[in-house]
Amino acid sequence: MTRKYGNGSVYKRKDGRWVAQAYVTLVNGKKKRVSIIVKSREIAREKLREILAQKERQIHFSEKEWIIAEYLDYWMNKVQSKRVRETTFATYGFMIKNHIKPTLGGHKLRDLSVYNVQCAIEMMEKRGCSGATIQKCLRILSACLNYAMHEKGGQLVYKNVAQLVDKPEYTPKETMIWTSEQAAQFLSAIKDHPLFIAFLLLLAYGMRRGEALGLRWCDIDFDKGLIYLRQQIGRINGEIKARDLKTKNSRRVLYLAPVILDALLAHAEKLGITPPAFDPCFTPSTQGTVVVSEAGTPLEPRNLNRRFDILVEKIGLPRIKIHAMRHTAATMLKDLKVQDKDAQLILGHAKITTTQNLYQHGSPEVQRDAISVAADWLLNEQNVLSLNA
To answer: Which of 108, 125, 287, 330 is the most buried (most CB within 10 A)?
Structure first.
């Protein structure tokens, strides 16, 4: 039996499924009858209400019937390829290919529901995907649907269903870092290692791995005692490439401390080179990097990680990730009473809250000393007498 709802209708098919049907206006002004087939009457009614609400808001419908997998490809190639960095684009592509398409790719874009996305989440959980992976997939899908809602030439979806699902709980693991004593012990133990200068830059300045590997001799002004961080090196699509830094805040000028100046000159002497003059003009390049492989070429980022893990195990220090050296540097700045704004600029963070909340960690030694001072003051009889006087 067909039930009329305003300018649309809902009826049951012979195969037991339900249809929401209504006439809509396309972007080109033509009229078209839209039929949405779903499993239950309740869902059909909901779909019809969405169509009628879109008509009432005078939002025209797209003539093309998009499938999720097709639209994701369109969105990636037309939009994201121009907006995001190559590494981010590659990450998006991996998540879409391995997680989003297998669970949602066959659905029609217009018909995608909260239920569909919720089922996809359950499927990913059964496949062993972590909460972090699922949340990343939801962020990518949500960004895609947001574009579909506001795309010029016709809004393709009425609402962003990826924002309406129950997301799995995910609590990031606490980053393990070294104390300043452990960091100093590490550098002392590897002072004769060919990659000593790379680890010194990571710990002293809190550089990102790609920034340390991308630093060139021509980025260093030895006369003025300044280091200009202008590029980073990474592997993209199987090739080592130099590219601009992550954000405009990542581009920064750092003070060349005398001990680091000496270390750089000693490193240049070991390589048998004379550092070239500082070049104020910047063009990304993999030539002339400070950190090099045994063959004199830019160092493969993963090889730096491998060498780091081997050295840490050999020295007997607590195992941490190489990126945690950046956290270690940030925490040392805090313990040295460096102002938050200055720490933010040294680390190249876009927001000061990133420095404070994500990179700076509590220091047990500092807390111990603070508690000791407080306890001593509270239990000092002279202090009590002076307050009562």
So the answer is: 330
